[in-house]
Amino acid sequence: MADVDYKQLEERLGRQLLAQRLKIQTHHVARLFGNGKVWFHIEHIRTLHRIIRNTLKATGLYWRGHHNALAVRVNFQELFCADLPEAFDGYRLLHISDTHIDGNPELIDILTKLIEPLEYDLCVITGDFREGTFEDYETPTRRMVELRRHIKTATFAILGNHDAIEMVPMLEAGGIRLLLNEHVALENHGEKIWLAGVDDPHYYETDNLDKALENVPENGFKILLAHSPEICRKAAFASINLYLCGHTHAGQICLPGGRPLLTNSKCPRKCHSGQWSFEEMTGYTSRGAGTSSVAVRFNCPPEITVHTLRRT
Question: By the 8 A CB rule, do 147 and 106 touch?
Answer without folding.
Answer: no
